[in-house]
Backbone:
């Protein structure tokens, strides 16, 4: 009975409650989809992973599951080989099949690392090269939002956030509850002048907080260029104001503000043109789509070599993802910015002991081997039932947005 040979790979889709947060693509639906991955070894060690929950990824993971049985949890090259075969075989014909590869690997790879750490009795950060910081700092992720989901009978605890005053209240609450230092505003929803007025209100209320704004490519190049003077000196970085490497390069040449991205550099083949054109000064890494923890460490090294800053991106997620992000961040010397996280927006949890807690805006690594977290099987069942009841296969923010603003149209760029 080997403690490190894989006996089973389980994938459980879940849906957890999510508030009506706004972005350039629309509005978050009442439930966010996610998948929980369990790698169980012959010796009964269970490693955990968490990833997206859309149908194509679930199908790919389901096709991969029998292929990893018998593999060592340390065999990351074997995982890439098998995942590539699945994406080019069983997933052939799916739109975007090739782009699934790093996502499929990442979902399983984290669970393999966790099982490896648990089998050795060592925290994951040790396997990732050793801990370079005791606490991992996160930023407050501020969203414009509706007061309630369409059809809901009462407002959520955050209420409506569409004005600068409401935005400051939201930020105050985030900072009071979690101690965050940096404030990131999700933009690309309201006219840019209104969103910058929101940033200016945040600056007045939080004079020393590093500020960021992220319109998700929602601004035209000419709009972005026109807005730069108002943003100079106000923000620590400008995240994806406009879409694509060529447009970002033009903006970066026109400003001293570092441009950051989780949109135009999201895969290995984006790095050479982005570096050659000087498109960005900060890359937001995300192990969920960069191919896992090992690939994220490679990305960190590339950023270090080329003098590009490193931050961390987030989508709606629960504690397994947060623990993985924190271990990776704790082992990455050049991660100089406070990481993004949607975590404070989530009330559900799937790990034993409930929600992980930020203190002074930072997370101390959960104690214990591997990721330091274990599954709450009762909650896993409940959130899986939510998934079955919700009947969602993909995230559709645009559809949700039109329930609130029927004439709303997607545009990238829009303003
Ligand atoms: O959850 O609404 C959202 C965000 O807009 C997310 O989808 C983005 O991927 O957080 C992300 C970002 O930084 O662009
Ligand atoms: Mg972003």
Residues:
């Amino acid at each position: 009975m080997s403690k490190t040979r894989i006996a089973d790979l389980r994938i459980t889709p879940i849906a957890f409650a999510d508030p009506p947060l706004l972005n350039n693509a629309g509005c978050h639906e009442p439930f966010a989809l996610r998948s929980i991955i369990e790698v169980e070894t012959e010796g009964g060690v269970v490693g955990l992973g968490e990833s997206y929950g859309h149908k194509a990824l679930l199908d790919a993971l389901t096709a991969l599951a029998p292929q990893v049985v018998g593999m060592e949890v340390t065999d990351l090259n074997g995982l890439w080989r098998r995942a590539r075969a699945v994406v080019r075989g069983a997933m052939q014909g799916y739109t975007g099949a090739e782009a699934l590869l790093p996502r499929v690997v990442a979902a399983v790879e984290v669970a393999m690392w966790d099982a490896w750490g648990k089998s050795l009795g060592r925290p994951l950060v040790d396997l990732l090269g050793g801990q370079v910081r005791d606490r991992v700092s996160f930023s407050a992720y501020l969203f414009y939002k509706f007061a309630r989901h369409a059809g809901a009978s009462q407002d959520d605890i955050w209420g409506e956030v569409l004005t600068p005053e409401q935005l400051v209240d939201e930020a105050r609450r985030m900072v009071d509850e979690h101690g965050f230092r940096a404030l990131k505003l999700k933009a690309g929803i309201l006219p840019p002048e209104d969103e910058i007025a929101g940033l200016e209100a945040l600056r007045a209320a939080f004079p020393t907080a590093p500020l960021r704004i992220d319109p998700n490519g929602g601004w035209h190049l000419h709009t972005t260029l026109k807005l730069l003077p108002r943003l100079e000196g106000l923000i620590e970085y400008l995240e994806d104001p406009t879409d694509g490497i060529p447009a970002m390069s033009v903006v970066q040449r026109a400003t001293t503000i570092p441009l950051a991205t989780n949109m135009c550099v999201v895969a290995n083949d984006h790095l050479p043109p982005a570096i050659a054109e000087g498109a960005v000064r900060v890359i937001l890494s995300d192990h969920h789509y960069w191919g896992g923890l090992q690939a994220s460490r490679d990305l960190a090294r590339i950023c270090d070599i080329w003098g590009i800053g490193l931050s961390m991106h987030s989508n709606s997620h629960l504690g397994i993802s947060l623990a993985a992000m924190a271990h990776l961040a704790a082992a990455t010397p050049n991660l100089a910015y406070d990481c993004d996280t949607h975590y404070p927006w989530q009330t559900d949890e799937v790990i034993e002991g409930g929600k992980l807690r930020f203190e002074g805006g930072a997370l101390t690594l959960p104690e214990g081997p591997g990721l330091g977290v274990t599954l709450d099987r009762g909650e896993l069942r409940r959130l899986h039932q939510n998934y079955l009841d919700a009947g969602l296969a993909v995230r559709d923010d645009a559809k949700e947005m039109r329930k609130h603003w029927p004439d709303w149209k997607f545009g990238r760029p829009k303003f």
Summary: The chain has two domains: 6-122+376-392, 126-364. The two ends are 60 Å apart (CA to CA).
